Structure formats: C-alpha cells, structure tokens
Amino acid sequence: MSDRVPVMKIGDVLLVSIQTDLEDQTVLDLQEDLSERIVAAGARGVIIDISAVEIVDSFVGRMLATIASISRILGATTIVCGMRPAVAITLVELGLSLNGVRTALNLEQGLALLRASRPEPGVRP
Amino acid sequence: MNDHGADSAPTETVTVVRNADVVAARQLVRTLAQQAGLSLVHQTKLVTAASELGRNMLLYGHGGVIRVRVTAKDSRTGVWVEFRDEGPGIENVELALTDGWTSGGGMGLGLSGARRLVDEFDLQTGPQGTTVSVIKWNR
C-alpha cells in the first residue's frame, strides 16, 4: 500500500507537488492518476514540482519522461520544475538526459513557460 | 577494496525484499553519508547509486542484503555500501555494464550509471549470486 501523490487543478493546469521519497508503486500510481485527470479536467498543462525530491534515479527519470509523453499525446504540455542542483548534477552523470521533458527553475517560471507555449485564443497554431 | 572491516565503524544492514526496503536503505545510506561528511552532491550521487543497485537486487536477484558503513583509508573518510543477492548472477558482466543495455524493462543505466556515481566499484557475480560493493570518499 503506497500513498498517492495529490494532483491539484488550477484552471486548465494540473499541479503535482512531490513531497515524499518516491517508491516505485507511488510513481506508477501517479502516472495513472495523472493521465485520468488530464482527460477528465481537459487539462492543457501539467506542472510537476520536484523541489522536495532528494534523488531522481533512472526509474523516476523514466517516469518523468513517460508522463511527459503521455500528456503530450493527451494534448497537455508537461513541465518539471524545482530540480535541486545536486539532483541535476547526478542525473547528468548517471546518463539520463530526460529527453522530451521541459524543465523550469521553479513553479513561477514553470507557469510562465506554460503560458508562453500556449497559442493565443482564436489564433491557429 | 571490499574488506574494510577491522578498522571501520559498525556495519548497518537492510534486508531487501520489496521496494519499500530500498527506500529505507537509501535513507540509511544518506544518514551515514552525512556522518562521513560527504558534500550534498556526493551524498546525492551515492544515494542515487544505492537506489539503482538496490532496485537491481530486487529485479534480478530476488532481493538480498544491503550493508553500509562509514570507512576510512589514509586520511579520507567515506561510505562503503555492499549489495549482496543470491540470484542467478549476471551472465555477461561487460554487457550488463554497457550504457543502455537492459535485460529487463529499465533504461539500462542501473549498473553503468551507478558505477559512474561512485569512486570505487567492485562486482562479483556467479551462479550463487551477485555482490556489488561501492565506496564514495569524502574530499
């Protein structure tokens, strides 16, 4: 039995703030919960805040990349924000490039990036 | 490099049979890394390596035992971590240490990535099981 990570909705953005040391099952649950919420909420953006996460190993890295791919297919842009410097250094040395995952320094910049990546209303992309 | 027993601090042990045990082992490794005075980046590298190797034990070795202790050599202090399982062993070590190669569903960065994250890395494998021991030094 693992705790589920809460998914919050602000407008058409889903916000996930990961606050615990991630167990594999928690990660898999989050993937499922998020995909369902994207569809149910008609979300256009997903922000995953990992500022409280102390390590990102290859499993968690793969999860972030998978979530980004799933949400892209469902029509939402995913931004991972708040990565700690030590985590970033370790990820690079581990060999994980997080291809396809957009990142931002913090939540504020993440939201700004989402707004900027969205086409103006009435304008065809 | 494996035997730092005589002059070292007490060894802590975690038995790994499920994923939650890997999480517990990560926390133990972090605590000892802090005790050994490793920098935050070095702590993070060691804990990440422990996470990869602990997961490997579960995936390929049916679980096992993780032993951790603070160790010293010359004027350096570090943390020694050993991952021992009694699984079927790794058939082709060279291949298993290749980036991107995986026999399971992973990204193929577990062993090769973990090796890059530590200062010393030793792998013994055979039909009786696999033992990986690593050291991260404080400097």
TrEMBL record, chain A:
<feature type="domain" description="STAS">
    <location>
        <begin position="3"/>
        <end position="114"/>
    </location>
</feature>
<dbReference type="InterPro" id="IPR051932">
    <property type="entry name" value="Bact_StressResp_Reg"/>
</dbReference>
<dbReference type="InterPro" id="IPR036513">
    <property type="entry name" value="STAS_dom_sf"/>
</dbReference>
<dbReference type="Pfam" id="PF01740">
    <property type="entry name" value="STAS"/>
</dbReference>
<protein>
    <submittedName>
        <fullName>STAS domain-containing protein</fullName>
    </submittedName>
</protein>
<dbReference type="InterPro" id="IPR002645">
    <property type="entry name" value="STAS_dom"/>
</dbReference>
Automatic annotation (TrEMBL), chain B:
<dbReference type="InterPro" id="IPR003594">
    <property type="entry name" value="HATPase_dom"/>
</dbReference>
<dbReference type="Pfam" id="PF13581">
    <property type="entry name" value="HATPase_c_2"/>
</dbReference>
<keyword id="KW-0723">Serine/threonine-protein kinase</keyword>
<keyword id="KW-0067">ATP-binding</keyword>
<feature type="domain" description="Histidine kinase/HSP90-like ATPase">
    <location>
        <begin position="41"/>
        <end position="139"/>
    </location>
</feature>
<keyword id="KW-0418">Kinase</keyword>
<keyword id="KW-0808">Transferase</keyword>
<dbReference type="InterPro" id="IPR036890">
    <property type="entry name" value="HATPase_C_sf"/>
</dbReference>
<dbReference type="InterPro" id="IPR050267">
    <property type="entry name" value="Anti-sigma-factor_SerPK"/>
</dbReference>
<keyword id="KW-0547">Nucleotide-binding</keyword>
<dbReference type="GO" id="GO:0004674">
    <property type="term" value="F:protein serine/threonine kinase activity"/>
</dbReference>
<dbReference type="GO" id="GO:0005524">
    <property type="term" value="F:ATP binding"/>
</dbReference>
<protein>
    <submittedName>
        <fullName>ATP-binding protein</fullName>
    </submittedName>
</protein>
